[in-house]
Amino acid sequence: MDAAVPNKLLDLAVQSLLSNESAAIQALEDIPRELFVPLFIAAFKGGHKSILSAMVKVWPFYCLHIGSLSIQESHHELLKAMIENLPVCPAQNSSPRRPKLRILDLRQVTYSRITCPEVRIKSPLCFHSCAYSDHSITKIEGHLRLGNSGFETQSPRPVELLVDLSLVGSLMEKEFLDLLMGKVEESSGSLHVCCRDLHVDKLSNYKCTLKFLDLKCVDRLLVDKGSLSDINRILSRMAHLQSLSLFKVSFRSLSGKVFKNFLSNLKHMENLKELNLASFYLKNHLDKMLRFIPPGLDFLYLPFCNLSSRDYQFLSQSPQATHLKLLNLSNNTMHWNDFGPICTLLVNLSGTLQHLELNNCLISDAAISVLIPALIRCTHLRVLGFASNPITMPILLNIMNNLTPLMELKYVIYPIPVHCFDDWPFQGSLDRRKLAIVQLQLKTMLELAQRNDMKWITYTE
Fold this sequence. Notes:
By secondary structure, this protein is of the alpha/beta class. The chain has 17 helices and 13 strands.
């Protein structure tokens, strides 16, 4: 028999069920377990809210993940329906298919399957279950196994709901939060909302919401607009943060208690891999911050931080910046004396650096000529951005000649040469005819170098 035949039969069975929702819901008690995953995928893609609601109630596996399924705005009603019907206080009944679902994961995780493989029958596990919260299934059931057996039968079974939250003030977000809080109340404490990725816009508006969440679970935190004192309060509740992004953060002094508390919080972030501090004033104090960061940082963003020569000098010698994969120093002015330390930094990172951004740093022809020998040693570089710098056309062509041998380099964001403007910087109008000639020259050079896989792009607005 053709190997494709069973798959075609399975597809036909799924489509037959979806064509009659009431019959499909009734059949959930009897259909084979193997049919649940393909039926769930098809029902989700097709927007079959009633079928999804019923499936969650009788899901025959330990966990259910959205995984790589694409979530559009139209799917939010489906996600809400799944939460509403998640069994958190299952009734004792003799149904042939009592709910087994313990972990509902509504995050988009491309490497996740709809269900985890059942490697253990008596004690199933989920590869994405919460590992840190005291309210997690792992912690609660671990305590129960150590305690008396009678307590286990009286307590409601713990359930986990894995989500990523973006608190930006939308009506949809408010409705979602109200649903989560209502579900936790309904569960009488058995439901643990595990937020892994948290984005907060205007932190002062969400102090009460953040009290509701167990911040021990958060892997990635992004705060856009907030006071450093408020940020310190939530960082003190996070023990396993892997990514921290702070934009437009206000504080009075780099020598005050609030900044010192921030440094103390950084010191305890042993798992931190990514640090993004945009518009975070650090002039002459980068050394204080970097000394408190545990080694192991992979991604460092410092745009609009008003860095000084002292900061560049320390960065070039810092053990915390010896194996970065990404470095963004954009929108910090660089003077002639700064390029020695920056060259040293690039040489130190030549074995690991994959993404470098030096946009709008006032890098001149002479400065970029100094940087080229260090840049060409970064053989693992994949993305380079140096847009909005006052570079002339001859130097731009020289840069291209030097960079095309870097076979892993695929994307370059280059500056528009100064001759394309009536008056540098940007006060004069851009001559698009001159820019078109520049683009044609660069395209021709890439073809001659046989680097059609390399993209050179620029900003025209």
